[in-house]
């Protein structure tokens, strides 16, 4: 029933032209970038990615890379870099823990 309603609303949106100017319109989807993501998380990951969401770990990794380029010989930057590396380890550990719990509970 829910699937029927969703299909009906999509058809109405198409008929009203509400989906005409979407980013990436007319281009094929790149579905090959999620091979390392568990199957049950791929749809959510793709939706967030298409919406421009960047995971905190990736933002932190980008900041680490920037600081590494700048930090040569700068003690303050090196301290911040060490803190960011600790943060990324913690974020990764939390995400891994949540994923394991989710997989073991069958969600």
Low-confidence stretches: none
Overall pLDDT level: 80
> What share of residues are in beta strands?
under 5%
Q: How would you sum up the global shape?
A: elongated
The topology string of helices and strands comes to: HHHH
Radius of gyration: 20 Å
Structural class: mainly alpha
Structure description:
With 107 residues, the protein is mainly α. Helices cover 64% and strands 0% of the residues. It has four helices and no strands. Helix 3 runs antiparallel to helix 4. The longest helix is centred in the C-terminal third of the chain and has 31 residues. It is elongated, with a radius of gyration of 20 Å. The model has no long low-confidence stretch (mean pLDDT 80).
Which key phrases capture this entry?
107 residues; 0% strand
Write the layout of secondary structure elements.
Layout: H1 2-15, H2 42-50, H3 56-70, H4 75-105
Describe the structure concisely for a colleague.
This protein has four helices and no strands. By secondary structure, it is an all-alpha fold. α3 runs antiparallel to α4.
């Amino acid at each position: 029933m829910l699937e029927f309603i969703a299909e009906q609303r999509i058809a109405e949106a198409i008929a009203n032209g509400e989906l005409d100017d979407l980013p990436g319109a007319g281009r094929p989807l790149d579905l090959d970038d999620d091979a390392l993501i568990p199957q049950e998380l791929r749809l959510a990951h793709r939706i967030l990615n298409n919406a421009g969401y960047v995971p905190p770990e990736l933002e932190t990794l980008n900041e680490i890379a920037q600081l590494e380029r700048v930090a040569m010989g700068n003690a303050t930057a090196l301290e911040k870099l060490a803190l960011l590396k600790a943060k990324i380890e913690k974020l990764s550990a939390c995400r891994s823990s949540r994923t394991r719990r989710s997989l073991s509970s069958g969600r």
